[in-house]
Design brief:
Number of helices: 6
Structural class: alpha+beta
Order of helices and strands: HHEEEHEEEEEEEEEEEEHHEEH
Distance between the termini: 58 Å
Strand order of the largest sheet: 1-7-3-4
């Protein structure tokens, strides 16, 4: 597992450079771009790898409903269901619902259609009250962060309020609600070190991340001041891909490193690179061995 400060150092190491060549802000921007690119490749390989849900409480006469931010930033609705009338799906059919090339939103609610309309989801025909529709979607993820906790409660923490200095605080904290939903935050030093939680809600105005209750309440000052890291959602064993890909983009300032980095990342004929090791692992991970019978007209 790599935390943001370690990825920044890996980036510099790949390019034989330092902060005088690439600022921390420049590196973190390239790390986020690399993270998002790799996540897109993962979802192309296995659309079910990252899945989140959001429940819509139906109001009579209303057919437009808001979605959380991480369902609107380049994500895709996979399918929908009525939580009070669950439809059973065979595993083989479920995989078909996740297919990226499908014609649109798959509705498991008979007679009801869903479509994206700007930042909202439209339901047709207009539903009546008394139901909760669950939307399954591929989430978008925010940028990595690292720094000292500025405030904490039994089931929350607030990210750093100071501008990032890339010495103790890494990454600019986004101020939009829900931006970090679904990401994992880990306490990397101080009181509560080793605790890890998934962010279930994020309030941008106060930089407040809501999580399941901490087993040890975090410290916000002193010698045991708790330090957090919002982790990269790329699978942990493949975190090294992120600074590697970012350094390939950064090689515009150090072109003599580009070929070596590209060989490590993409590989060469007969020797797949780190990216294809990740995609191969994902492909093997989803192999279920389900036997199916396909009728074939042989002409006899």
């Amino acid at each position: 597992m790599s935390i943001p400060s370690e990825m920044v150092q890996d980036f510099w190491d790949h390019l034989d450079s330092g902060s005088n060549f690439f600022s921390g802000r420049e590196v973190m921007k390239r790390l986020h771009d690399a993270q998002q690119e790799i996540l897109r490749r993962i979802v192309q390989e296995d659309p079910s790898f990252y899945v989140s849900t959001h429940d819509l409480t139906i109001v009579s006469g209303t057919n437009l409903y808001d979605l959380p931010l991480n369902a609107r930033l380049g994500s895709r609705i996979i399918f929908t269901e009525n939580t009070s009338q669950t439809t059973e799906i065979a595993p083989a059919d479920l995989r078909a619902h996740f297919h990226l090339s499908g014609p649109g939103v798959i509705s498991l609610i008979p007679g009801t259609r869903f479509m994206m309309q700007g930042k909202q989801v439209r339901i047709e025909p207009t539903p009546s009250a008394g139901a909760t529709f669950r939307v399954w979607y591929t989430p978008s993820y925010g940028n990595m962060l690292e720094g000292y906790v500025s405030a904490a409660a039994a089931a929350s923490l607030s990210f750093h309020t100071a501008d990032p200095n890339y010495s103790t605080n890494y990454g600019t904290v986004d101020r939009r609600d829900d931006f970090y939903n679904g990401m994992t935050v880990r306490i990397i030093s101080g009181t509560g070190v080793g605790q890890e939680r998934v962010i279930t809600d994020y309030t941008g105005s106060t930089r407040l991340a809501t999580v399941a209750a901490w087993s040890t309440t975090l410290e916000t000052s002193g010698d045991n001041w708790s330090k957090f890291a919002v982790l990269c959602p790329v699978p942990e064993d493949h975190h090294s891909l992120v600074p590697l890909r970012a350094a390939m983009v950064g090689a515009v300032k150090n072109r003599n490193r580009l070929n070596d980095l590209s060989m490590i990342y993409h590989g060469v004929p007969g020797r797949p690179g780190a990216l294809f090791e990740l995609l191969g692992w994902i492909m093997r991970r989803q192999e279920a061995g389900i036997q199916t019978v396909t009728p074939i007209d042989s002409g006899y």
